[in-house]
């Protein structure tokens, strides 16, 4: 920030979900800081180039990269990301905090209010996520899982619009909830049937670490931090990091804190749905008083679960890292992202 009283500039992408999420955090920061926060629109390569497939642009990482560049360049002071879209490595000089997460589960949005069990034999279900596809096929091998792209409304229209060509689509409950669209949900999917993406439902609020040095922003970030969310998403994303998994990997992870116990389940599935490996582990947080020690223990829990998955042959079930085709030109290398269902604006 240029001066302590200048309005804080919160960088956001232009999609409905991004602006909704950014506005939520802007409101909370305004309350916490006691002065206005302004939204600054940051356009990314992914927003500008709507014709190339997202994979050729390097996955949803392009959206994250543009926001982070704006933070580093000083075009904004704070950025809000969907945590599941963030690569697992934290860049130097930036600090992330995770407010209390929304419901992390996936939501089935089917015509006629159908549940997964109600869908007709051979029913057509749309998702762009290999993780969702694999688990849907494992639960209902007869389903025809169709690869779809587009923003939330575009996807919903495929199942619920006047020209619907699908029986259902699967989206994150959290995104629908933030957009005020939960009335389209016909079933919130049981995480033991469809495990959510690591970090799903959580937001990551990011700032330059240097700005968090003894300023009111540091206090606001501390107030935004939600311990159970932080420990849960650390554990979930630690699985992804240990598996060195990219955005195309069919991996789900679901952690929660209940009565001072952190429980983590993770699944690696074969995309055709014919096989999956699941592991669950628990961590007693009761004696982990210091925040840093609890964080370390949550990360270690994720490593333990990932290694159990590897021991059981996770790497044989699915290509874990992104087997991205070599770039045609001398484009800079892209970081693999932790997301699974790319949202194109
Ligand atoms: N990659 C797209 C994306 N990133 C975050 C969300 C939903 C909100 C969240 O998980 O916090 C979505 C859409 C979806 O998967 O339905």
UniProtKB/TrEMBL annotation:
Monomer. It holds the Pfam family Porphobil_deam. It comes from Isoptericola jiangsuensis. Belongs to the HMBS family. It is an enzyme of class 2 (transferase). This is Porphobilinogen deaminase. The gene is hemC. The porphobilinogen subunits are added to the dipyrromethane group. Residues 232-310 form the Porphobilinogen deaminase C-terminal domain. Its EC number is 2.5.1.61. One of its GO terms (biological process) is protoporphyrinogen IX biosynthetic process. Residues 320-330 have a biased composition (Low complexity). GO terms for cellular component: cytoplasm. InterPro entries: HemC, Porphobilin_deaminase_cofac_BS, Porphobilin_deaminase_N, Porphobilinogen_deaminase_C, Porphobilinogen_deaminase_C_sf. Residues 320-345 are annotated as: Disordered. It catalyses: 4 porphobilinogen + H2O = hydroxymethylbilane + 4 NH4(+).
